Amino acid sequence: MSQFKIAGIQMACDRSPAENISHAMRLVTNAASQGADVVCLPELFATPYFCQTEDPACFQLSESFHGSTVSSFLEIARELGITVIVPFFERRSAGIYHNSAAIVTPAPTSPDVYRKMHIPDDPGFYEKFYFTPGDLDFKAFTTPVGKIGVLICWDQWYPEAARITAMLGASVLFYPTAIGWDPDEKEDMGVAQHDAWRTVQRGHAVANGVYVAAINRVGFEPAPNSDGGIEFWGQSFICDPQGVILAEASADQEEIILADVDLDHLERLRQMWPFWRDRRIDAYGALQKRWLDESGNS
Amino acid sequence: MSQFKIAGIQMACDRSPAENISHAMRLVTNAASQGADVVCLPELFATPYFCQTEDPACFQLSESFHGSTVSSFLEIARELGITVIVPFFERRSAGIYHNSAAIVTPAPTSPDVYRKMHIPDDPGFYEKFYFTPGDLDFKAFTTPVGKIGVLICWDQWYPEAARITAMLGASVLFYPTAIGWDPDEKEDMGVAQHDAWRTVQRGHAVANGVYVAAINRVGFEPAPNSDGGIEFWGQSFICDPQGVILAEASADQEEIILADVDLDHLERLRQMWPFWRDRRIDAYGALQKRWLDESGNS
After folding, report:
1. Can you tell me the distance from the alpha carbon of A235 to that of A249, in angstroms, rounded to the nearest whole number?
2. Does this complex have an ipTM over 0.90?
3. Which of B150, B245, B247 is closest to B206 using CA atoms?
4. DSSP class of residue A122?
5. For position A297, what pLDDT does the model report?
6. What is the rounded distance in angstroms from the CA atom of residue B143 to the CA atom of residue B81?
7. From A120, A137, A201, residue closest to B283, measured CB to CB
8. Looking at chain B, which residue has its C-alpha nearest residue A196?
9. Is A51 a catalytic residue?
10. DSSP string for residues in B217-284
């Protein structure tokens, strides 16, 4: 299939898990009714963003790959013939939990899973407490519309993740996301932070000649036992392989965004600006190092 | 030195080599008088962009590392105490020519050289005929203001080049450039092409927490023996480690752009959004491959 439609569900996730899941099911069904072949939900959409604090009680929110979050979408995918990217808090065993996304397709072998490879940890985003870094490597997933890539939030800052996923044949990189402003920082840094986030991902689209879909939460979620919280900045977007924005949501509303993927357009762009031809793979070994300037300068 | 000033010379390069060099010397001296510690010239600034055709006669334009293009700036650098990035068409031996940039500093050991690693070839930019790909690897250069990186034009589309140069300790990535519109494509694709160029480089700034300075030619240069030519799109820019534009030139004028580099700002940004901490260097080996999806899909 050389053309297909993708959608992102920008939603607030401050309801109970059961309510978030049923709300998401309705929105996914709505997106499918508008012609979407692939629909992406935001990171950990079934729960509030519990990583605002480090609280062992939150591990109760985790569930297996066969839990209700993922299985709720199996029937929808089969019935509607669509692919759904279903982020979930994965319990793999006592003591091993991942920030994951199930790739749910109509195929009998579905679902498959991606486990977030790069785990953040900064004030309000204490993910290193909860999540073991992914050990399934970067992946591209076979769907009825061809191969797609799924990466999660913090992964979006790493050109290596986008590059390897594109090399695996993905035509679209989906980034389920939960990013927002600290209300104390928004006035001074809000514009630059959001623009950096948008720019680095549009850059991945350009460098790799792929479509990118970044699907974020929206709305304010207070931090437990504090005056703070996160204002999720919405602004989910889909861009083409030149970084041209095809669809973009508001900063404060739940929205479904849709865009057409055209694999002929993708291939023409890779022919006109043939970046893939010229990678210096003989000179990239250093990328497996942590750092090269042992003086500590810069 | 935790703060210093950098400059880019956006210039037309359609004069004779002697005239281009003397013009550039005046502009570099002017930039230094405005406080610049590091000044960057456009790619191959000493000559018209001869790669619009494949003509063996153009090899006459090449010169050694000790030729007049580079040596013209040695005295300026020493006298004014500045660093100058001097792109030149390097003749290394009969049959081996590079698209290079000399890094000219006041130090007795100066200059050093970067040889363009990624060589383009598309209509109007027939560089693979002229230039052997660089074999000196990616480099960061020690200057009086610390380490800087130099990459050249087509390199700017490769996240790997930016990443490795940043890992070598560069606080600024300079990209001498010669990029423009094919007049036949400008109306349909001009905006998207320019924005892709700007975006991917701002993305390198964000992903690596470095300043980026892309310094382009400006003006129309006709193609020999044809109706065509290239309209170099100017719009040289300098951005900070969040991709925030600090200075940007017009699309049609010669200009000197200047901006301040603040290494404390750079370090604060790397602390607030600690991307460097979390690279999955255990999972990046695939970057040394050409492609991973042997089905040929996507």
Report:
1. 5
2. yes
3. B245
4. B
5. 63
6. 10
7. A137
8. B242
9. no
10. BEEEEEPTTSS-EEEEE---EEE-TT--EEEE--SSS-EEEEEEEEHHHHHHHHHHS-TGGG--GGG-
Q: Do A160 and B279 touch (CB under 8 A)?
A: yes
Region for residue A175 given its phi and psi (left: phi exceeds 0; alpha: psi -120 to 50; beta: otherwise): beta
In this complex, do B298 and A166 lie within 8 Å of one another by their Cβ atoms?
yes
User: Closest approach of chain B CAs to the CA of A201, in angstroms?
Assistant: 7
| Run of H or E residues at B128 | helix B127-130
pLDDT digits (tens, 9 = 90+) for A28-54: 999 999 999 999 999 999 999 999 999
Domains and CATH numbers, chain B: 3-288 (3.60.110.10)
Q: Mind telling me how many Å the CA of A290 is from chain B's nearest CA?
A: 7
- Residues 51-90 on B with a CB inside 8 Å of A are none
Chain position carrying tokens 């200057």: B143
Contact check, Cβ <8 Å, B283/A168: no
Q: Is the CB of B119 inside 8 Å of chain A's CB atoms?
A: yes
One-letter identity of residue A245: I
DSSP state at residue B85: E
Strand ranges inside A3-94, DSSP E: 3-10, 38-40, 83-93
Amino acid letter, residue A279: R
Gap between the Cα atoms of B161 and B99, Å rounded: 16
Q: Is the pTM of this model over 0.95?
A: yes
pLDDT at A259: 98
User: Do A39 and A5 meet the contact criterion of CB atoms below 8 Å apart?
Assistant: no
Burial of residue B33 (CB within 10 Å: 0-12, 13-18, 19+) is exposed
Of A118, A192, A204, the CB nearest to B280: A118
| DSSP alpha helix (H) spans, A179-256 | 183-208
Residue type, B187: E
What's the pLDDT at B295?
80
Q: Cβ contacts of residue B128 below 8 Å, gap of 6+?
A: B119, B120, B121
How confident is the model over A168-218, as pLDDT tens digits? 999 999 999 999 999 888 999 999 999 999 999 999 999 999 999 999 999
Partners of residue A275 in chain B, C-beta under 8 Å: 157-158
**Measured distance CA(A258)–CA(B243) in Å, rounded:** 27
Q: Does the annotation count A58 as an active-site position? A: no
Q: Tell me the two tokens of residue B66.
A: 């000790």
